[in-house]
Design goal:
single chain, alpha+beta, Sulfite Oxidase, Chain A, domain 2, eight-stranded mixed β-sheet, five-stranded mixed β-sheet, binds ligand MTE
Length: 320
């Protein structure tokens, strides 16, 4: 059965596409090898990542057929301002500094069943799935990431939002001892983000616990983060500790810091430029070099078929 109903966008040459089953087969091989203690003997290309942090997953729907970006780039070229503003800072700082267990996520506000979830209880809420999504950063680079998670909707349903719940606000951990970036006022800490309730319920929106089949590296938002693939990457808040259901549209950190540059919706939109740069094209991580071409950015990051109806009738130049 084909779990990946979306074919790659037309701009990608067939030769560039590595179907999921190739990396998944590679992963299964690694798992089997780990089970019999063979990992040390595996060729380098197979042993891309250290064994031991694996998550039990099943193939999920909606994955892109594009070749996943190498794990090294996904984990080393990262935005996580709590650990510094340089792309290499989070990989340097987060692994030593962030304590990801014990960890709890408080779910509160306009819900009938508010609850504080221990991370291990949260993990058990729904079966974990592999979902390979395009990620488009607002800074005009992109990647293809094999996430591990389950639909955020599974959590939303569990806490039963009341009729007043119109939006959902996500809050990252606030702890300057673990997060040295919070000692400087680059953003109004803690990092917050928000979604409309129907966006949070969309089957593409994920609560993610891992990538490349393993638990999330700290710099990518361990132990739990949001992934909203049709929006710019900054909407996907990392290392979250609170999910609050609210009636009024929340203000997110980037909107607070530069409202004329960052809106609430932040849907990937090649026709709406950032005031300081074009959003029409993007550079794919790993495709650097003199002759590498920029890719055209796709409306809703290529997920228009699935999400455009959420915004029917809205002026997306105004609600950017
Ligand atoms: N979450 C927190 N808490 N702090 C951040 O600085 N950066 C965002 C988002 N989530 C950020 C965050 C931005 S700008 C991007 S592009 C993505 O994380 C990048 O992370 P990823 O490559 O792990 O998806």
């Amino acid at each position: 059965m084909n779990h990946y109903p979306w074919s790659a966008p037309r701009d990608i040459a067939a030769s560039e596409i590595t179907p999921q089953d190739v990396w998944r087969r590679r992963r299964d091989l690694l798992q089997a090898a780990a089970a019999v203690g063979l990992v040390g003997a595996m060729p380098r290309v197979l042993a891309q990542s250290p064994a031991g942090n694996r998550l039990p997953t099943k193939p999920g729907p909606f994955s892109t057929m594009e070749r996943p970006t190498p794990r090294k780039l996904i984990t080393e070229y990262v935005n996580f301002y709590e650990f510094g503003t340089g792309k290499g800072d989070p990989a340097k700082n987060a692994p030593q500094l962030l304590r990801t267990r014990p960890w709890s996520v408080q779910v509160e506000g306009e819900v009938r069943k508010p609850r504080t979830f221990d991370i291990d209880d949260l993990l058990k809420l729904a079966p974990l799935e592999d979902r390979v999504y395009r990620l488009r950063c607002v800074e005009a680079w992109s990647a293809v990431v094999p996430w591990v998670g389950f639909p955020l909707a599974a959590l939303v349903r569990r806490v039963e939002p009341t009729g007043n719940a119109k939006f959902v606000e996500f809050t990252t951990l606030a702890d300057p001892r673990q997060m040295p970036g919070q000692r400087s006022p680059v953003l109004d800490w803690p990092y917050t983000e928000g979604l409309r309730l129907d966006e949070a319920m969309h089957p593409l929106a994920l609560l993610a616990f891992g990538l490349y089949g393993e638990v999330l590296p700290n710099q990518n938002g361990a132990p739990v983060r949001i992934v909203v693939p049709w929006k710019y990457g900054f909407k996907s808040a990392k290392s979250i500790v609170r999910i609050r259901f609210v009636e009024k549209q929340p203000l997110n950190s980037w909107q607070k810091s530069a409202p004329h540059e960052y809106g609430f919706y932040s849907n990937v939109n090649p026709a709406h430029d950032h005031p300081r740069w074009s959003q029409a094209t993007e550079r794919r991580l790993g495709e650097d070099g003199l002759f590498s071409r920029r890719r055209p950015t796709l409306m809703f990051n290529g997920y228009a078929e699935q999400v455009a109806s959420l915004y029917a009738g809205m002026d997306l130049q105004r609600f950017y």
